[in-house]
Each structure stands twice: as structure tokens, then as C-alpha cells.
Design goal:
Radius of gyration: 21 Å
Strand content: 15-25%
Structural class: alpha/beta
Shape: globular
Largest sheet: 6 strands, mixed
Number of helices: 11
Number of strands: 14
Helix content: 25-40%
């Protein structure tokens, strides 16, 4: 009997060891990244003005500006990997990327699967709708269809808080906005920073007064694979150092000022040095 127990314990120990090694194999340390001379970063390709591909095929946006500085300070090049909202955890868990910089809102559930660094943005949810049939309060959505992207905080918020709202879900933001333009939903919900920017470039749409800041004020942060403390520590130190030079305000001026306008308040979005 004792021998059987010992065998079971030994087997479990071996399996735990194998799992630990395989888990570590799925992420790279800063030394390994530097040795490879390339960092793999997941970003959005269709979420303007935070992460998108311009008409010349080049990645642009607030998140991309930050990614470029990280690569510069690491002394490496960047390989951008386009990612859909629902894939952000998966691409880290499978080792497809080293870092996610894709408007990744920090939540308790996500923090169980990835390691978040210090925040560099703050955000809530908003709803954009047509001026002809505006959504001014969440109650206006009762019995109607709301367009959202899968795997986002908007999906979680409306599923839990407003189950009577019908959700039309898309993998990509571009498809979600096309659905709004086509009239397939009464509105679209995502980060308020994004929907406000979108209405500036798309006349005939608005963000109603009662749906400009829904849910809690959340933070957006870089994410690394669970357990990759080495890279996490480096990113945190980088954010603290960049805060001393007001880097994220410079990022706002370079990528967001023209979108939000000369009178927009950078402090409503920017987080410097990881401190709210």
C-alpha cells in the first residue's frame, strides 16, 4: 500500500516538473528577447487611434508608439502580431507573443491568466449610436441589439448587468463598426475613449450624455505570460522611468491630439509612471 502511494506521489512530482518546464518554455525572458534581437508584440490592427494599420501598411496608434519605445530601450526590433480582442490571453499562453499592447483592460478574471504590468491608460465604457435614433441612457437599449466585440469588457458588462439587451458579437472591431454603419444594431459599445474618437471621424453618430462613462473606471496595461516575472519587472521599470519624462503625454500629443481636438484633456486618459 505504501509503495503504491509513493509511486503516485513520484508520478505527480514528475508531471508537475514537466508541466513547469513546458510552461516556462512558452515565454521568453528579456535576455532571450535581446539575444533574438526581436520582441513579438500583439496589437490591434483595426482599433484606431490606439492600434491600427495605416494606408501604407504601417502600424500606428497610441499602443504602437509605446511599443516602439519599448523595443528601442531593449535594443531590439519589433514583430507586430495582429490580434483580435478574444485572443489576447491565448497569444500569451501559447507563446506566440512576448507582450500584449492591445487596449487590454485589467480585470480580476484576466489577471488569473496573464500578468499585467503597471497601467498606462484609464478608461470606462461608452455607447455610440446614430443621431437619428440616439441612445442616451442604458435603458434605451432594452429589447434592442447592441453591437460589441467578443472578449471585451463591454461583453462582460452588458451580459452581467443588462441581460435584456441583445448582443450582436464580432471577432474584429472593423466588422463591428461596419455592422453599426449598416444599421444592424441600435448602438455599439467599447471603450469610451474609442467611441468618442470614432464619432469625430464619422458624422451622424454620437455618444449620448448618459452613456459616456459606463461601469467602473478601469485601467489599461501591458500584459505578459503568466509567470514571466523577468519581463514583467522590466516593463514595470520602463513605465516608471518613462513617467519621469511624461512619455505618455508625448504619446497622446503624437497619436491622439489630432483625433480628440486641441481642447481635449490628456489627463482624462493618460496614466504616467503607472500611478493613477
Amino acid at each position: 500500500m505504501k509503495k503504491s502511494v509513493i509511486k503516485v506521489i513520484a508520478t505527480l512530482a514528475v508531471l508537475a516538473s514537466v508541466f513547469s518546464v513546458s510552461a516556462k518554455d512558452k515565454f521568453r525572458t528579456t535576455a532571450q528577447i535581446k539575444k533574438s534581437k526581436t520582441i513579438k508584440v500583439a496589437v490591434f490592427s483595426d482599433k484606431k487611434p490606439f492600434g491600427y494599420v495605416d494606408e501604407y501598411g504601417k502600424y500606428q496608434g497610441y499602443d504602437v508608439y509605446f511599443a516602439e519605445r519599448i523595443a528601442k530601450d531593449l535594443g531590439v526590433k519589433i514583430k507586430y502580431v495582429p490580434v483580435e480582442p478574444a485572443q489576447r490571453v491565448e497569444v500569451l499562453a501559447t507563446g506566440k507573443v512576448d507582450l500584449v499592447l492591445a487596449n487590454f483592460t485589467v480585470t480580476k478574471e484576466r489577471a488569473e491568466k496573464v500578468d499585467f504590468a503597471l497601467p498606462y491608460m484609464k478608461v470606462a465604457l461608452g455607447v455610440v449610436s446614430s443621431e437619428k435614433d440616439p441612445i442616451n441612457n442604458v435603458e434605451d437599449l432594452n429589447g434592442k441589439t447592441l453591437i460589441i466585440a467578443k472578449g471585451t469588457t463591454a461583453e462582460t458588462f452588458f451580459t452581467e448587468k443588462y441581460p435584456e439587451v441583445k448582443l450582436l458579437k464580432f471577432d474584429q472591431y472593423a466588422d463591428a463598426y461596419n455592422a453599426l454603419l449598416d444599421g444592424r444594431g441600435a448602438g455599439l459599445s467599447t471603450d469610451n475613449t474609442e467611441v468618442l474618437a470614432w464619432t469625430i471621424e464619422n458624422k451622424g453618430f454620437l455618444v449620448g450624455s448618459g452613456v459616456t462613462s459606463l461601469g467602473n473606471l478601469d485601467t489599461i496595461a501591458p500584459a505578459v505570460a503568466k509567470g514571466n516575472k523577468d519581463l514583467l519587472d522590466w516593463i514595470n521599470k520602463e513605465i516608471e522611468t518613462l513617467g519621469k519624462e511624461n512619455f505618455f503625454h508625448a504619446d497622446y500629443e503624437a497619436t491622439l491630439r489630432d483625433v480628440y481636438g486641441k481642447n481635449s484633456d490628456a489627463d482624462s486618459l493618460v496614466v504616467e509612471g503607472g500611478k493613477l
